[in-house]
Design brief:
This is RRM domain-containing protein. It is a single chain. This protein is α+β, with helices and mostly antiparallel strands. It has one domain: 2-Layer Sandwich (Alpha-Beta Plaits), CATH 3.30.70.330. 35% of the residues lie in helices and 26% in strands. The protein has 5 helices and 6 strands; from the N terminus they run ααβαββαβββα. Strands 2-3-1-6 form a 4-stranded antiparallel β-sheet. Strands 4-5 form a two-stranded antiparallel sheet. The radius of gyration is 18 Å and the shape is globular. It starts with a helix and ends in a 6-residue tail after the last helix.
């Protein structure tokens, strides 16, 4: 199916316009994901508030989700922590990413990236 779409041609200005609008929507996410910020053992009652306060420097924070993801089915599989921050506007998300990506926190180099809005809205935190 994907291979069929790769070679698909777009004709007509309205079709091109629809594709461009879809691409633009993808880029307008208001959600940032922070990776490698904390270990599961470092999660405490203060973490959500600390993240909200720090990210509040870049704009209005709608919500923060701290998500622990097991990296396999085995009982002893590694667990990684992703912190999702939803801002009011995409521009705030980009400001936060510029400031936080590559920053050191508790001896760890943070990775801050835009997260797909559609996935987030559908509670898919797996990407």
């Amino acid at each position: 199916m994907l291979s069929e779409q790769e070679h698909m041609s777009i004709s007509g200005s309205s079709a091109r316009h629809m594709v461009m609008q879809k691409l633009l929507r993808k880029q307008e996410s208001t959600v940032m994901v922070l990776r490698n910020m904390v270990d599961p053992k470092d999660i405490d009652d203060d973490l959500e508030g600390e993240v909200t306060e720090e990210c509040g420097k870049f704009g209005a924070v709608n919500r923060v989700i701290i998500y622990q993801e097991k990296q396999g089915e085995e009982e002893d599989a590694e667990i990684i922590v992703k912190i999702f921050v939803e801002f009011s506007m995409a521009s705030e998300t980009h400001k936060a990413i510029q400031a936080l990506n590559g920053r050191w926190f508790a001896g760890r180099k943070v990775v801050a990236e835009v997260y797909d809005q559609e996935r987030f809205d559908n509670s898919d935190l797996s990407a």
